[in-house]
Each structure stands twice: as C-alpha cells, then as structure tokens.
Amino acid sequence: MPTDIDVLVLGGAGVDTIVYVPELPLPFADSHMVPSIDMRAGQTGDFVAMGVHALGLRTHHIDVIGDDHPGELVRALHRDRGIPLTEVPLAAGTKRAVNLVAPDGRRLSLYDNTRSHETDRLPPATVAALAGSSRHAHVSLTQPCAHALPALRAAGVSISTDLHDWDGAEPYHEAFAHQADVVFLSTAKLSDPERTMRRIAARGRAEVVVATAGSAGAYLLADGHLTHVPAVAPPAPVVDSNGAGDAFASGYLFGLLAGEPPRRCALYGSVAGAHACTVPATRTDVIRRDQLLARAAAVAGRPAPGPLDAPAAGEGRA
Description:
This protein is α/β, with parallel strands linked by helices. It has helices at residues 44-54, 69-81, 124-132, 149-155, 174-179, 193-203, 244-257, 262-276, 289-300; strands spanning 5-10, 15-20, 37-41, 59-65, 85-89, 96-101, 107-111, 134-139, 158-162, 182-186, 208-212, 218-222, 225-229.
C-alpha cells in the first residue's frame, strides 16, 4: 500500500532548560554560579523526528502540546525544520525538563510530571489515519502514547520504542517493551542487560532489542543471538551526551527502512550517537545522511554508497 510517511513519531515533544554545571553530582550549596542557562525546544520525540528527517526519511510527529511559550518553541522547531506536526491541545501545558550538564558531557535530567494526566489521549482516529499512511511508527515513552499502541497494531505498522534507562521492572514501561517490534534501551540501570533483553524478546513482539552502553558500545539481540557492537569514535570532542540515544535510534531506523541487516543498522546508530555527543545541549544539530554514510563506510572499511547506491527516502533495498 502506498505511504506518505516513512516514520511516524508519537510523543516526546517538549522543551529543555539546559544548565551547565561545574560537576555532577553538584555539591550542595545555597547557590552556584554557572556559565549559561538556556531554554530550547527538543525532547526525545523531537530529536528522533529531526534525526530521521535529516537522514532523508519522510517524517511526521504527533503529540500533546500546550498553548504556551514552550509550545510555540516546539512549533517553531518543527516549522523551521520542515517536519509536519500534528498538535493535540494539552491543557496542563507543554512538557518541560531541566538538564544539568557536566564538563565531561554527562547529564542529569529533571522532568516536570505535572504536564500530563492519565486522561490525556491522542485521538485514536487521528493516530489510525496517520499510521495507515506510514511505514513505521516510533513511540516515545511519554504519556499518553501507551494508549495509542492498540491503534498502531490495528493499522499493521511496524513499531519501535526507546525504554531509555529502564530498570527492567518498572511496570509502566512494559506495554511499550512488549508491543514494539524493535526495542531500544540503555544499560544504565540494568544489572544483567542480556537477561532483560531476552525477557523483552520472549514476552513481547520484539524481533530486535538493542541496549546502548555509552562508551562501551551497544548490545544487539537479533534472531536469538546477542552481539556486541563496538562504540564508534566521535568525530570531535565529546561535550554532551544529551540526545545520543535518540540519535542512535534514528540511525538504526534509517538502516531498517533501507532494508539493511540489524548489524549494519546498529552501526548507523552508533555513528549517529557518536555525532550527537559532539553537539552542545543548547543546539539541535543532527547528523546528515551524507555524513552518516561516509562515516559508517569508513568504520566498516568499504566505500560510501554513491548517489545511485544510497537508498532514497521511502525506498528499500532488495
């Protein structure tokens, strides 16, 4: 069936206030002088949408957004990037967070949980219509995306999600983990990543589970086999890890929709994630398609695809 959208991104729209701090954890004190405090649009769904869009995939983003200044920042981000955005009014206001960023690039994120309620919903008919025109849906963990999973399943679209720093036990994450075909997560809170990855695959629909481990690379579970994916050296000094996981997901999805095997998809993810670590949190730069292909080819030791070899947006490989 013809599709108008390569990747439909659900949820994860919001604004971050970026605070650069001298160290993490930040020592207790009545006050600290910091070099800058900046607000910009861009949370997990925004970064995935920007990431896949910059790689040439036709992208659409849907989320709940408030009629407020942070909401206007989100609208402007999508408008400036040329990414279609379907807004669902959110009375509580646009989601927001504060990121404390250390000189070594590590971060601590503080999320405002007053900006959503259990009764919030993405309209099922709207989700179904968008999903019916999409090749793939990437679902953010944010409320109310869990309620959209049945409509996505009914539409027959493939689904990915990012569980971020799930501990493997928090019940809220399980609906996402068990309904997605591709599951991303971090090893940050996992005592036994392989056990958690295999449990996700056994209890849910996932054909692929990827656990990212920062500078230690990533772990790829596909066809029952666990493979270590080495980290890719960043092309510039590391300044911030914010958005690295979203970039990894974007790179992986680019490979997936091009028909690449899981290991190659994971390489694309690693290259994109390494690039994200070189971008200050106050900016929303993402890796371009030509950069991704050239760097991946260099790592893999084969020539980068030429214009006729690289899959175009909306096209797959045989």
